[in-house]
Amino acid sequence: MEVQALLITFREALEALLIVGIITSYLKRVNHKEYTKYVWLGAGLAVLASAGVALLFQVVFTGFAVMGSETYLKIAIMFISVILLTQMVFWMAEHSRDMKKSVEGKMDRFITTENVVGMVIHSFLVVLREGVETVFFFAAITHGNLGAAMQGWGAATGIMIAAVVSYFFFKGTMRVPLKTFFKVTGAFIILIAAGLLVQGISMLQDLNIIGSVMPHVYDLTWLLPEHPIDYEHYLRDHGVAPIFSGNVGVFLKALFGYSAMPSLEEVIAYVGYFVVIYLLVTSRHAKETRNAEQKEADAQALGPKTKNVV
Prior knowledge:
310 residues; mainly alpha; 80% helix; 0% strand; globular; High-affinity iron transporter
């Protein structure tokens, strides 16, 4: 869970800090540093609002627990988180290139109209979006126990790493491009999303909401048990210890949704998720290639006409 929390907070905090950093750096560059305080005001209010969302969510979850329906809420959160995590990765991949230009364009309009309220609201919404997403993802990886995620070392470490990366980026001393950072963290986020998808399906099968054609496609307990209890049971029943500890299985299950005895539906969902991701990536790449070729063709067609006019 801690590694999941680290990756999620690093990703979310980095996105928020980058946008706020772009805004404040631009204001400094155009000699309007007096507006910086309003940007940080909006960001600070968003942090407080995110804490309020976390508190509200915990209250709602407790209400579901009292009614005995918290399991259904957990499953819903997992599936929604899969969609949000996937969307987050693709959104950043698509908008990271023109993010700076877009943010600076908005700031120009705010400065021209002296729209201080607009600056506060803009920075507030940027940071609030990341905060709300973090709350939701924490709920998914902890099954509703937000306090466990927020108090652990993963969340704090993720924020600190994001702050350090942002600092060196804006100081111009960071050697590794942010695009590479987003690709690497994006790959891990996709793995986390796939794991949540499989865990959600497993919980549905445990509740007998959906059945299974083949409850156990294979059994890797002898190699890597899913839990220390599975390790002890295997040792008791077979007289031989599994190759790897059950603690490793717990870690991989929490991070990637590992299952020592997955059902056929879990395997199909896991593999199918990556097939869908692959199709989305190749489709986006093909679209970018077509757009680049079209721009090049338009430029070549415009060249001779320009020469004739001259």
